[in-house]
From TrEMBL:
GO terms for molecular function: DNA binding. Residues 5-103 form the HTH hxlR-type domain. InterPro entries: HTH_HxlR, WH-like_DNA-bd_sf, WH_DNA-bd_sf. Pfam families: HxlR (PF01638). Keywords: DNA-binding, Transcription, Transcription regulation. This is Transcriptional regulator. It comes from Flavobacterium rakeshii.
């Protein structure tokens, strides 16, 4: 039961279609809202805005506002987001392996 609860907590924070993609985009150097949106095909501005708020609330990203003209807003991964690195690496490896199995008709 504890494992199910822990998994539920994980999915609450990073689950869904976009959150891990947003974190990867930030780790690839995209910092501004439009840069992030352009780097992830199919992601609408409305959804991105909500996902960024959720990721900030859960301590995975930081929103930095620079008082310039015009105002500049950047999103940065926090050191806490580095704890997801093993998860991201495993998911990428699994996805590559799965795609290869499908291409080879192994199912």
């Amino acid at each position: 039961m504890a494992a199910l609860n822990a998994m539920s907590d994980s999915f609450y924070v990073i689950g869904g279609k976009w959150k891990l993609r947003i974190i990867i985009s930030l780790k690839n150097g995209n910092k501004r809202f439009n840069e992030i949106q352009r780097s992830i095909p199919g992601l609408s501005a409305k959804v991105l805005s909500g996902e960024l708020k959720d990721l900030e609330t859960n301590g995975l990203i930081q929103r930095v506002v620079y008082n310039e003209t015009p105002v500049v807003v950047e999103y940065l991964p926090t050191p806490y987001s580095d704890t997801l690195e093993p998860v991201l690496t495993s998911l990428v490896a699994w996805g590559e392996n799965h795609r290869e199995k499908i291409r080879n008709g192994e199912f």
